[in-house]
Specification:
globular; single chain; six-stranded antiparallel β-sheet; 161 residues; Thiol Ester Dehydrase, Chain A; 1 helix; alpha+beta
Length: 161
């Protein structure tokens, strides 16, 4: 696994209509602006986040479980968009308007508490790609230790959704 990534964030290539997500939308003023980047070889996607302390769970030093699911949700749908885009032989450029995916199913396995005061890294890879569906597998780690994993079924949507 390489964490070296391309320079353009997948979320920054969403069409204008799809740029308002609270978790990852570049046009949501109050959002987190989560960014997902394809690896240089295109086989994985990577996001990094260091949440603010108010996203704590029941234990102040640990991240809220719903926030973990949200990170997987935004990262997974961006990853699905990238893998489908790449399958068409396309790359990301400043002029790209990438196809959009939404979550149909998200399974999260919480393995150990996720510290809130350190950088969180989420990686993803493609398990399966169909005409409208992508299955994405993800891992969340902090300081080299896996904290959670997820599997997502994401579906492509039309611009008029």
């Amino acid at each position: 696994m390489t964490l070296e990534t391309r320079k353009i964030a997948i979320q920054d290539t969403y069409g204008d209509r799809f740029q308002h997500c609270w978790g990852c939308g570049p046009k949501n003023e109050l959002g987190l602006h989560l960014k997902t980047y394809p690896s240089l070889d295109g086989k994985e996607c990577v996001t990094r986040i260091r949440p603010e302390s108010h996203y704590t769970g029941g234990v102040p030093a640990n991240l809220f479980g719903g926030m973990i699911a949200m990170i997987f949700d935004c990262h997974g749908t961006a990853s699905a968009a990238w893998f489908a885009h790449q399958e068409k032989g396309l790359d990301l450029t400043e002029d790209t308007v990438i196809g959009r995916f939404i979550t149909a199913r998200l399974e999260v396995d919480y393995q150990s508490p996720t510290p809130i005061d350190q950088e969180i890294i989420v990686t993803s890879h493609l398990e399966e790609l169909g005409a409208r569906k992508a299955i994405i597998v993800m891992e969340m780690s902090v300081a080299g230790q896996q904290r959670a994993k997820a599997r997502m079924i994401a579906v492509a949507v039309k611009d008029h959704m």
